[in-house]
Every structure is written in structure tokens, then in C-alpha cells.
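Researcher: Go.
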Amino acid sequence: MKQARHRTVVAAVLRAVLSALTVLILGVAGAPVAAAELPPPDYDPFYAAPADLDSSWNGAVLDARPIALLGLPLPISAWQVKYRTTDSSDRPAADVATVLVPMLPWFGPGARPLLSYQVPEDSLGTRCAPSYALRGGWDTGAVNTLIDTPFMAEALRRGWALVVGDYEGPQSRFLDGVNSGRGVLDGIRAARDFPAAALGPGTPIGAWGYSGGAFATLWAAQIQPEYAPDVRFAGITSGGVPADWPAIARHADGTAQAGLALLIVFAIARNDPGAGVLELLNDRGQAALIENSAACGSDLVPKYFGARVDDFATVANLLSHPAFRAATAAQELGSSAPTAPTYLYHSITDDVIPVAGFTDLLGRYCAQGATITSVHSMLPSHNPAAIGEAPAAMNFLADRFAGVPVAPGCHAR
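Model: Structure:
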């Protein structure tokens, strides 16, 4: 009875957290004043890589500091943790993750779970990093993190610990799958081994991501067996999954989402200058690439409403050009499949990421023997599906954390 009363108190308090975070989103106009004193990552010495980075191992905690989550007095212990990772060029890098642990005891079976939560960072600059927003930093780049706070709050309400990584790294390499996947996996290692979080090797680990966050989550799942065999996922959930990048860009080109197409082009041109895409940008395109070197997707979408990619290029049909297609092909999901039970969902009428790419990726994963529960959601468009399908995705993770078995193979729900 006493334990049951404790659980009731836990649920009530963490429901209050969810409400507080939701109110924060609705009242975010007041945030700039409160956060004006926080330097963005490029001007914050905490983010700087130490001189002896080479001597650390992947996932090693390099530094940490406690923070007030979103600058609010919430019953959540929160830290920014700087950790060693290795980028896609095999160079050492210092990433930062936010580790969140409910202050109340864990009453579930076994150890408190750790959920690796990937916000869709979708950025070309570190001011869009989730760690900055979660510390209470205000910038237009915080919007994706703030939109995701109700989902993070629900995970905290369930008593789970969270690690929310700046998985794009210090160079903000949007659309770099290996870089993002390694950043996620090393962030999990750092959170699991961070003494103040009181987790440890017996902690069940899950991963979650939607849209750009799904890209990072599934890249982490794909490379985990080789890169981080010590990180064993109990379960993985992802929705609004980006697959077939040229199709995503073509779908957005010339529409209200045209900034997304340009974000993809700019990222590919900047991340891999030897791929030939950079040379295909005309003077306007080159100037735009420089002008938007620290932009977030949330900046580019309103800025380039209705724009056409070809207006920034020296060739017609840039999005079908062999150089562009080859560069994006290297970033496609599906070269290997997650080994952990996985839950994937996508709206059949997604207005941002066409569903055909998701269906094809699902087929490739299943052909490789993955264990996947999939949902072709009837909820209309990208954002409503993110909201409406979240409870089932959370429950899937809860079952995996509790050790409930799942039948092998692919199953449509």
C-alpha cells in the first residue's frame, strides 16, 4: 500500500512537470528576457574541446555542470555533460548532451530506464543545439526542442531518465548519418557512466526520434553493433522517418517548405565539398550558403517560402543531378538494420516526408531480418501523426523496458 501511494505521488508530480512544460511552450514569448544572459554554445567555454581530447575514449565524460531545466524550478535533476565522440572522418570531437533524471525514486521493475531522445536538430549552427534550449537559452533555433518538450515530459513522468544529445556535433553537421549515430551512442555511454545520474551497466536503454531525430536514432541503431557493442538497446522507436532525401527535397521545392530543400542542399554542399554539389551552386547559391552558415531549419522555412532550388544553381534540375544523388545516397538509411525490437510509424499523408521512402526503408529492414512493428498512420500529415502516434510508441518502449518479449519479424499494426 505504501509503495502504491508513492507511485501515485510520483505520477501526480510528474504530471505537473508535463503541464509546466506545456505552459512554457504556450508562453514562450517571455523566454528571451529570462535567457538573455546565457551565451550560445559558440561563445560558451563549456563547449570547447579540451587539449587532451585524443587521450580520452569514446563516451568518456570530459566535463559536466548542473542546470535548471529550461531555467525553471522543476523536480528534475539536470546536467549538461560534455563527452568524447568520433566524427564521421574519424577525428575526435567533444559533444554535449543534456542528462535528465526525475528527482523521485524509481518504483518500476529493475533499474531506472534511460531513454536517448533525439530532438530534430536540423541545423547548420550550434545555436540550434538542444542543450542550449534545454538550459533556457532563447533563440529562434530553440523551436524544435520546445515543440518536443511534451514528449520528453511524458518520458520523465514515467520515471525514465533521458539523455538528449547535440548529436550533430560542434560543426552542426546536419545530414551526416555516421556523425549523428556516433554522437547518439557516445552520449548514451556518457549518461550511463555519469555518476550523478546514478544509472549504470544494468540500465535498460531505449532510443526515440521523430523526423530529423528519427534519422539520428536509426543511424545509431544501424551502426551500434560495430561502433558501440556495449550499448544494447531494449527497444527503439522512430516516426516521420526521413528516407529518400532527393524525394524529400523535390517534395518541398517551390512550396511553403522550400527552406527544407535548401537546408538539404546547403548541408550536403558544406559537409562534403568534394562531392561536387558545392560547384553546382551559382553566385546566389554560394552567397546563401555563407549567409546561412549558422541557420536552423526553422529559420530557412519562413525565409525561403516558395523558393526554387534551381534559382541557386548553375544547372537545371539540381535535385536530380548525379552529384547530388550520389552525395545524398551516402546518407540514406537502410544499409543495415536495427538489431533491437523497433517501432516505426509514418503518416500515409505526410506533407513533409513522402511516405514512399518510409515504406521502401521498412521493406529493406525487414528483408534483413529486423524485428519491427510498423504503423502506416491514418492521421493526416507530419505533425498530427507525431502527436497522435506518440502514446503507442511510448507504450512500446515501456514494454521493452519491462522485459515483455516481442515476436520476431515484421508486423504491421
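Model: The chain has a mean pLDDT of 92.
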